[in-house]
Amino acid sequence: MNKSKSIVLTEGSILKALTKLAMPIIGTSFVQMAYGFIDMIWVGRIGSGAVAAVGTVGFFTWLANAFIMIPRIGAEVGVAQSMGRKDHEGVVRAIRHSIQLIIALILLYGAALLTFRQPLLGFYQLGHEIQGMANDYLLIISLGLVFFATNPIFTAIFNGAGDSTTPFRINAVGLIVNIILDPILIFGIGPFPYLGVGGAAVATVIAQMTATSLFIFEARRRPELFGGFKFFTKPDLTYLTKMFKMGLPMSLQSAFFTLISMTIARIISDWGPTAIAVQRVGSQIEQISWLTAGGFQSAMSAFTGQNYGARLGHRVYRAYFVGLGIVSAIGIVATAILILGAKSLFGIFIPEPEVIVLGASYLAIIGVSQLPQAVEILTAGAFIGLGITAPPSIVGISLNLLRVPAALILSATALGLDGVWWAISISSILKGIILSAWYLRFMNTNSEMVLLREENIA
Q: What is the maximal distance between C-alpha atoms in the chain?
């Protein structure tokens, strides 16, 4: 293993290992977030209608994450646990099956989007002009989905191996390409024609394709991970079944989350395209906190996976509390920023007074839930590292489903649109409390985990 790029997770300081692994992952998450931020900043200059168009299409790219989740978890957990066992064949097996699976799944999903994009967009009743922009954007994004979906799998492979720096650097290059191309293609600078929202889509696809090419180049230089990798080898159906069983609960959670968000967006659309733009931009701003916590989720997953594979139960147990302290601080800071800086943050994206007022209310209400949300995200990573994905999915799906009736009930009161935001915030608070309690109970009552800890202490 290239020690200059990988972090030893099975020995030494837990805090240092988690932090060193998480920082580049957080950087990668912010890079991915910045794609949407940059698009929104430039598209926002066209108008709130363009933001509503891009935001609506965003739900369908979110839904793609449900398909990405199965091979992503298979790659991260499979590589991490195999590394802990020092099993190179297991590493290559996890890599090969995850890449084969994501390409098959995303090609099917992309074909479905291309075929049914008109009725899918018509569900939102955006109006002729906005739906036309959304259709152009979705068409281009669908053609480039294979790059959008493959990059998270490569990222998971390197993270599972303890190398989170390489994905950060590669994704950062993709972002730079996107930053350069966005204004050029959106507004038609120089010899390029004005493409509007379509230009934002083209810039994103080219940037993602650049990152995929760099990942492939890096893979060819890393025999300790990809040595013996043969893409066209027939997949092992038994292994794929195991991968599906492990990743399917989280995939369903991701799918339900997106579908519920789409339903919530339909409820929000009764307040007009301005409300849709508020929800889209507001969720982009909120990503700052949950993607930061998400960096520690991936770090916790890799750390737990490697130490569980090495049978170091005491490090698995202690790491959770170290991570809990870190994400709690993140949640508290995020709450303060979203509540106190709501108007200033929103004004960066859409400088329209009416939108800023609605957006500030969104951020203040969502800000209340940042601490428990961070705890939920970290705890999900701890479960995933053990290869146990049902608890996060059960908690996530059930409480996310409650958002729909809660949003309908609360928005029918004097709260109005704010009732929708409160439905989202309250469910996030409950998820953090319930899932963390579940994990602690599991670690203290599961016979295997208790035995591993006692053996290590002895």
A: 71
Whose structure tokens read 């908690």?
A: 395
Domain boundaries, the chain: 14-452
Query: Which residue, among 39, 95, 37, has the nearest Cα to 291 in the 3D structure?
Result: 37
Cβ pair 40, 284 in contact under 8 A: yes
Q: pLDDT tens digit string along 56-82?
A: 787 788 788 888 989 999 999 899 888
> What's the whole-model pTM score?
0.78
Q: State the burial class of residue 118 (Cβ atoms within 10 Å of its Cβ: 0-12, 13-18, 19+).
A: exposed
Cα(173)–Cα(35) distance, integer angstroms? 12
Q: Convert the pLDDT of each residue in 364-409 to its tens digit.
A: 999 999 999 999 999 999 999 998 989 999 999 999 999 999 999 9
